[in-house]
Amino acid sequence: MNTGEFITITAAIVPEREAVVFENTRLNFEELNDRVNRLANGLTDLGIGSGDRIATMDVNTNAMVEVIFACAKIDAVFLPLNFRAKPEEISFMLNDAEAKAVFAGSRYLDMLDSLRPETKTVDTYIAFEGSKDGWTEYEGIISSSADDEVFGTADEDDLAVLMFTAGTTGTPKGVMLSHNSFSSFILANVEPPDPETEEKNLLTVPLNHIAGLQAVMAAIYGGRTLIIHRQFDPVDWMKSVQNEKADRAMMVPTMLKNLMDHEEFGQYDLSSMKVITYGAAPMPLEVIKKAMIELKGCKFINAFGQTEGAGTITMLSPDDHEIPEGLSEEETEKRLKRLASIGKALPDVEVRIVDEEGNDVPVGESGEIVARGPRLMKGYWNRSEANADTMRGGWLYTGDIAYFDDEGYIFISGRSKDFIKRGGEMIAPEEVEQCLMSHPSVDEAAIIGIQDVTWGERVRAVCVLRGDQEKPSEDDLIEYCRQRMSSFKKPESIVWVSELPRNQMGKVLKNVLREEHSHPIE
Q1: Are 103 and 111 in contact, with CB atoms under 8 Å apart?
Q2: How far is 16 from 442, CA to CA, in rounded Å?
Q3: Which fold has domain 332-415?
């Protein structure tokens, strides 16, 4: 199914339902589809068409959503750029993708202008807001273009989205996603519009990330109202839930934690919120347990995935988050432990955990998550060597290390490159981090390996103090861990910082921690 059909079908079923709420802009599905068609026709008039890469650089806006579906309708390729990327990274991505056009918000126009001498393939520059020499005005295209309905002709296996990975190690890689990469997930997991049922989805995850893009696709196909925020702000989030009666949201763990830690939490009516999906980074057990208490009546979904898998590949369902009263102590403990898992594979994806030879590992033993299914990436753009390493025999090697429990739930141990090898023993950072964060004085923790002549690597913890708690001594905190796990896994040194470096999706940047805190352990 061509993703451009999502908006066309929904506009036909629930044309008067509100589709987008963004600041002072409110559009129903008929109006949104009209703007998408006008943009699609306008881009065609500018000579943009099938296969052309169309870049965007901005925070979340209704216009960004319109570009997504206009690209699909003219069979162009949507290329969202990270608005936090450095100029040299932007130049690289535009050149690597051979982008033909760029849409940008006002704050990025000067920077993109400075890159024009380096970006030879871009011949069309479109400003989302205002006017500037050398830039076409976005609203001018909408107002002057035909409103004829446009239908994409691309096959479901054709390229729809080119999304660059963060590039924290080496240059960014463009992940090629087809129309089916999205429609396979959407059709298997999202109900089509119901004229009798209305839902409102609060969007704060950036659209240059697969989680944000997947959330938009699901909302439009499902006929859900999208309440769009430029970026996440705890107070703005609470105000929107209260004022707009939002009932669904996608959040990363740091968003959820910042929300509940905010001094104004509890001052807003959040009772309309019925489903919070979280993911993109590991969820500390204490945070999700607190959220289940504080946000009564709200169901939670842990969605695990990556760009190469077009988003979610496993899910811990709302039922798995419930801990009913009256359970035995053993069953309660099992369900609490399960909150730290990423659940089970979705219906349209096959997931295995394998060793270095590609063989399935026994239950309880760690290996690499590999996945297979119709919606996995087509490969990396212009990266044959990376493709050979990541795609093997039809399986996507995710780089995530995990194990199955005896009921088939998957527990993440960490990223393969983050594992610590100490004296021949493999140490999963995630296990040590969860142990540290169970200490009343530790708010956040990250584990890194420190090179050592004798042991190969040794374990260092980088920690953030919780609130006004007293800082424990290094010996006491190490002993706390030693009592709760195998001795070789315990941290051997502790570094305290005011905050952990993270990317925009809340993932801890361990490469930064290694650069800043890799001095030898005495």
Answers
A1: no
A2: 50
A3: Luciferase; domain 3 (2.30.38)
Q: In degrees to the nearest 10, what's the CA dihedral of 306, 308, 314, 317? A: 50
Strand order in the sheet with 442-452: 442-452, 456-465, 493-497
Same CATH fold assignment for domains 4-231 and 421-516:
no
Tokens read off for 27: 């559009």
**CA distances in angstroms from 80 to 87, 167, 170, 352, listed in the order given:** 15, 15, 19, 31
Reference 304, options 327, 285, 282, 321; nearest CA is: 282
| HEC sequence for 340-368 | CCCCEECCCCEEEEECCCCCECCCCCCEE
Q: Is the pLDDT of residue 166 over 70?
A: no
Do residues 288 and 299 touch, judged by C-beta distance below 8 A? no
Q: What's the one-letter identity of residue 25?
A: T
Instruction: Write out the two tokens for 426.
Output: 């493999």
Asked whether 475 and 504 are in contact (CB, 8 A), the reply is no
DSSP string, 433-482: HHHHHTSTTEEEEEEEEEEETTTEEEEEEEEEE-TTPPPPPHHHHHHHHH
Per-residue exposure over 112-126, b if at least 16 CB sit within 10 Å of its own CB, e if not: beebeeebeebebbb
| Diameter over CA atoms, the chain | 71
| pLDDT tens-digit readout, 466-485 | 988 999 999 999 999 999 88
CATH 3.30.300.30 fits 421-516, yes or no: yes
Angle between helix 210-222 and helix 4-13 axes, rounded to 10 deg: 30
Rounded-to-integer distance, Cα 253 and Cα 282, Å: 7
What pLDDT, on a 0 to 100 scale, did the predictor assign at position 169? 46
**Quick one: pLDDT band at residue 400, thresholds 50, 70, 90?**
confident
Q: What are phi and psi of 198, to 5 degrees?
A: -115, 135
424 compared with 277, residue with greater pLDDT: 277
CATH for the 4-231 domain, from 2.60.40.150, 3.10.450.50, 3.40.50.12780, 3.40.50.10860: 3.40.50.12780
> What's the helix, strand, coil split of the chain in %, to 5?
35, 25, 40
Global model pTM greater than 0.90: no
Which whole-number Å values give the CA distances from 66 to 7, 19, 166, 218, 225, in the listed order?
10, 11, 24, 15, 14
| Paired sense of beta strands 101-104 and 124-127, if any | parallel
Report which of 77, 66, 81 is spatially closest to residue 31, judged by C-alpha positions.
Answer: 66
- Any residues with CB less than 8 A from the CB of 506 and at least 6 apart, and which? 252, 253, 254, 255, 280, 281
Structure confidence by residue, pLDDT tens digits, 277-299: 998 777 778 889 899 999 988 99
Segment 455-458 long-range contacts (CB within 8 Å, at least 24 positions apart) = 455/422, 455/423, 456/421, 456/422, 456/423, 456/424, 457/420, 457/421, 457/422, 458/420, 458/422, 458/492, 458/493, 458/521
pLDDT averaged over the chain? 91
Instruction: Tell me the percentage of the chain whose pLDDT exceeds 90.
Output: 69
Planar angle of CA 131, 132, 134, nearest 5 degrees: 125
